[in-house]
Structure formats: structure tokens, C-alpha cells
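Whiteboard transcription, Tuesday session. T.W. wrote the C-alpha cells on the left side:
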């Protein structure tokens, strides 16, 4: 029994280490890990919108929106004068997100890789990147694409949630944002879920 347990722990650790070197998008069958009481408690949609300073009328890009867990509350918060675009690689994630967003006219979803998808340049006030960083094959390329899509003075808000196998630490997040041309603009949250905000220089 003890050997079995040790083998399971070692396999788990090896799996996490492999994932950190070989990023893969969170499979759709694991979507339930995005929406559960723990994630809701430490990184619920409303709290993340507060951390990012989402307000009425904003144009928001939700990169790697998954099932729309944060996209839909964002659309409600920006209201009819604002707009939210949820972008994700996986059409099946977007199918779930669209279902959740039924009835909202200020949200649209785009399928594609953030690095390759043409986005309106200088269009968005804010980009959210929640639990996505570690899954990106080309992190710098992704943040540069987000940089182009934001208006001068626009905000990038990156959140990481502990428990995610590809969780990145605050320092790594900050370095990455700055290397993509953003200016550090503060942070919030705890070890369990932190948000680092950046500004695109004017
Ligand atoms: C862990 S989920 C997080 C979903 C959502 N942000 C949330 O907090 O519930 C990460 C999502 O990022 C998407 N993703 C990964 N790499 C991507 C890329 N290069 N471009 C667009 N989406 C990507 C995955 O398909 C997945 O749905």
C-alpha cells in the first residue's frame, strides 16, 4: 500500500513537471476544475473583475476564456455600453461559454490561438488572462499580441490560481509582462490566487 502511494505521488509530481515543460490546453473534460467552490472562493469572477478594475462601458478581451466563467460576469459588469470578447483555442470550451452567455448582446466569442488570431489593434481597454499563462506555448508572443490589441494606457490583468499544475509565481508573471512591453501597475490577492496588473504605456 505504501509503495503504491509513493508511486502515485511520484507519478503525480512527474506529470506536473512534464506539463510545466510541455504546455497543453486544459482539456474540456477537465472543465469542472475551473468551476468549483475552491476556484470560486479564491478567484471568483466578481473578485477578479474588482482586482482588474472592470467598469461600465469598458471593452474587455478575455484571453483563454474557457467556459466563460469570468467572461459572462465581465459582460454583465460592462453593461450594454461596453463589450467583451472571449477568445479560446478550443471550440468546445466556447460552446459552453456561448451557452452561459445566452441572452447577453454585448459579448462575442472568437476561436483561435491568441498568438495568431487577428485582433482589432488598439481596441480594448482591458485584457484578462486568468489561469492561462502556463498553458501558452508562446507566452511572450501571446502577451505581445495582447499588447497590440490594447489601446495606449490599456490594462493587462494576469491571474494565477494555486493548484493549477502550471501555476506561475508573481515574479515570473511580472518579468513576463514587463518583457512584453507593459509597465507594472500593482497586484492583489494572496498566494492562493494573485493578480498582477500592467499598463500599456501611452
Ligand atoms: C485553465 S483554462 C482557464 C479558463 C478561464 N480563463 C477561467 O479562469 O475559467 C485555460 C484556457 O486557455 C485556453 N488556451 C490555452 N492556450 C491558448 C492560446 N494559445 N490561445 C487561446 N486560448 C488558449 C485553453 O483552451 C483553456 O480553455
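and on the right, the sequence the group agreed on:
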Amino acid at each position: 500500500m505504501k509503495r503504491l502511494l509513493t508511486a502515485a505521488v511520484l507519478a503525480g509530481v512527474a506529470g506536473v513537471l512534464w506539463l510545466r515543460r510541455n504546455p497543453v490546453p486544459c482539456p474540456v473534460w477537465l472543465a469542472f476544475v475551473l468551476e468549483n467552490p475552491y476556484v470560486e472562493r479564491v478567484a471568483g469572477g466578481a473578485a477578479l473583475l474588482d482586482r482588474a478594475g472592470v467598469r461600465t462601458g469598458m471593452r474587455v478581451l478575455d484571453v483563454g476564456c474557457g467556459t466563460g466563467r469570468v467572461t459572462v460576469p465581465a459582460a454583465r459588469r460592462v453593461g450594454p455600453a461596453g463589450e467583451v470578447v472571449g477568445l479560446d483555442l478550443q471550440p468546445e470550451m466556447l460552446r459552453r461559454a456561448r451557452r452561459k452567455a445566452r441572452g447577453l448582446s454585448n459579448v462575442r466569442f472568437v476561436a483561435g490561438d491568441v498568438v495568431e488570431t487577428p485582433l482589432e489593434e488598439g481596441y480594448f481597454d482591458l485584457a484578462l488572462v486568468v489561469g492561462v499563462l502556463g498553458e501558452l506555448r508562446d507566452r511572450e508572443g501571446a502577451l505581445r499580441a495582447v499588447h497590440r490589441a490594447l489601446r495606449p494606457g490599456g490594462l493587462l490583468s494576469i491571474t494565477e490560481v494555486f493548484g493549477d499544475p502550471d501555476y506561475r509565481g508573481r515574479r515570473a508573471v511580472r518579468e513576463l509582462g514587463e518583457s512584453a512591453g507593459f509597465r507594472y501597475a500593482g497586484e492583489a490577492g494572496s498566494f492562493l490566487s494573485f493578480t498582477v496588473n500592467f499598463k500599456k504605456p501611452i
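Someone added at the bottom: The pocket of S-adenosylmethionine is lined by residues 25-26, 34, 64-66, 69-70, 87-90, 93, 113-115, 130-132, 135-136, 142 (CB under 6 Å).
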